[in-house]
Amino acid sequence: MDAEGLAAASTGRAAAVRAELGEGPVEGIGRRVAYRALKRAFDVAFSAGVLVCLSPLMLAVAAAIKADDPEGPVLFRQERVGRGGRAFTMYKFRSMVADAEVRLAEVAHLNEKDGPVFKIADDPRVTRVGRLIRKTSVDEFPQFLNVLRGDMSVVGPRPAHPSEVAQYDDYQRQRLLVRPGITCYWQTRRNRDTIGQPGGGGDSFYGRAIGNTRRKDVHDSGRRCRYRVRARRRLRE
What we know:
By secondary structure, this protein is mostly helical. The protein has helices at 3-21, 33-53, 55-68, 104-107, 128-135, 143-149, 162-165, 185-188, 201-210, 215-236; strands at residues 75-81, 87-93, 153-155, 181-183. Helix content is 48%, strand content 8%. It has a two-stranded antiparallel ribbon with strand order 1-2. Mean pLDDT is 76; it is low at 193-201 and 212-222.
């Protein structure tokens, strides 16, 4: 399927999931204190265990990245938006060439997603080692450091880039009510390339499973998130 076909399939699937979930706001998250405390305890214990057990593999991956492309760093750092619109630095093993961000405009026309999300299945900026660690999701391992810091959770909506959040509507902005995660509903689907973009209907399954806040809380949170994203953009300009 070509890029246009993938984009059309993505839009259609996202619309179907959104219709299935309904347009009502996610409610009740703030009231589930015990659940959130247990989830945080699991996040810390699990992430610490992963980092200790897989440290030899992570060191080998770091060496391979440096040998494949010595010019760039081992870790890729990028600003993402977390719960409540708070910005944080997300870590990944670098899977692209060192000047990938500079070359973004060159590949913008290859985007296979509709809406605020940018995704290319066969991105020409990806390195040889990068293709392998992306295919096996090893590039995500450094994000367990973000989990330990409290920026992310093991399970939750994928952390969005500020430029994506700036384009969210009120429905999509509800995903900012919860802590972003390393894995999410969208990533576990066999048909994830056609289920719609992260930040669309699929991520709402997670929020709705946790519980509910009032409509006013959702709209107030949305306004705060919009303000924070726009303020950061003005400061960078």
